[in-house]
């Protein structure tokens, strides 16, 4: 694993829809395909811990709150090296009328090719947010279904568990997302798998018809290039026929 860059904020990146963003959309450093992932969820569920674990394999235990940093690393997906940008985000606030997503968070979601929605199994309220958050994410990407993975974190804290992982699995099924129960503090592999599956989904979405298209074009018969020998022969035949006609007259 190679940590390429960190500590940039999303504000430094081109606004979605701009010409710069269009140029930036699929290619990262060194012309690699780029996958942009935003990590969202309620406050304190372990978003920063999850991102740092994925990037460094380490669990530190104490993280700056609402950091909102952007990180980049490379990952191998089906033999191809992709550049991944991971955007940590501030915790979503909940008000009486529902979710309150600030402009910074909305910008991150619009920028992303895929989203990780995190809740903590020790916080039922963070689980209750998942449906609304998923809806909000899809609303900001109207017209294209954004790949989303739901992650239930803090699986190690059995004694203070408030959410049965089955509930998370069922909800993710209803929303059409993948689901991972992880303990960021105790297990790196599950964290890696959650990101890996998401990257794979985005990668396939970025090249939806590459294989069938290739196959289709290879099936279309190419027009034969003119055979010079054959042309010469037919030209000679035509000439001698004319000569014969002339002499017979
Ligand atoms: N036991 C345990 N603690 C965890 C786990 N993941 C995160 N934590 C702890 O949960 C607390 C919150 O983690 P953060 O990563 O800061 O949570 P966050 O979602 O980024 O929080 P905000 O930035 O405030 O929205 C920290 O004390 C972490 O050490 C885990 O899997 N198990
Ligand atoms: Mg954080």
From TrEMBL:
Keywords: GTP-binding, Hydrolase, Nucleotide-binding. Belongs to the small GTPase superfamily. Ras family. It comes from the Eukaryota. The keyword ATP-binding does not apply. GO terms for biological process: negative regulation of transforming growth factor beta receptor signaling pathway. The lineage of its organism: Eukaryota, Metazoa, Chordata, Craniata, Vertebrata. The keyword 4Fe-4S does not apply. It catalyses: GTP + H2O = GDP + phosphate + H(+). Residues 206-227 are annotated as: Disordered. NCBIfam families: small_GTP. GO terms for molecular function: G protein activity; GTP binding; transforming growth factor beta receptor binding. Its EC number is 3.6.5.2. SUPFAM superfamilies: P-loop containing nucleoside triphosphate hydrolases. This is small monomeric GTPase. InterPro entries: P-loop_NTPase (IPR027417), Ras-related_GTPase (IPR051065), Small_GTP-bd (IPR005225), Small_GTPase (IPR001806). Pfam families: Ras (PF00071).
């Amino acid at each position: 694993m190679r940590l390429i860059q960190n500590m940039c904020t999303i504000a430094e990146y081109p606004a979605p829809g701009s010409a710069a963003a269009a140029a930036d959309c699929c290619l990262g450093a060194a012309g690699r395909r780029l996958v942009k992932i935003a990590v969202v969820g309620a406050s304190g569920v372990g978003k920063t811990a999850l991102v740092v674990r994925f990037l460094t394999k380490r669990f530190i235990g104490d993280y700056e709150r609402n950091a909102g940093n952007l990180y980049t690393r490379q990952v191998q997906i089906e033999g191809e090296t992709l550049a991944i940008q991971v955007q940590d985000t501030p915790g979503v606030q909940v008000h009486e009328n529902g979710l309150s997503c600030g402009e910074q968070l909305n910008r991150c979601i619009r920028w992303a090719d895929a989203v990780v929605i995190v809740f903590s199994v020790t916080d039922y309220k963070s689980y209750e947010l998942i449906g609304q958050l998923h809806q909000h994410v899809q609303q900001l990407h109207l017209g294209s279904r954004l790949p989303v993975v739901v992650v239930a974190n803090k699986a190690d804290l059995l004694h203070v568990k408030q959410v049965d992982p089955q509930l998370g699995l069922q909800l993710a099924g209803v929303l059409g997302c993948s689901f991972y129960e992880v303990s960021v503090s105790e297990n790196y592999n599950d964290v890696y798998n959650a990101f890996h599956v998401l990257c794979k989904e985005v990668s396939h979405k970025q090249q939806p018809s590459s294989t069938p298209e290739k196959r289709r074009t290879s099936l279309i018969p190419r027009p034969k290039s003119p055979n010079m020998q054959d042309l010469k022969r037919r030209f000679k035949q035509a000439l001698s026929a004319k000569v014969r006609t002339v002499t017979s007259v």
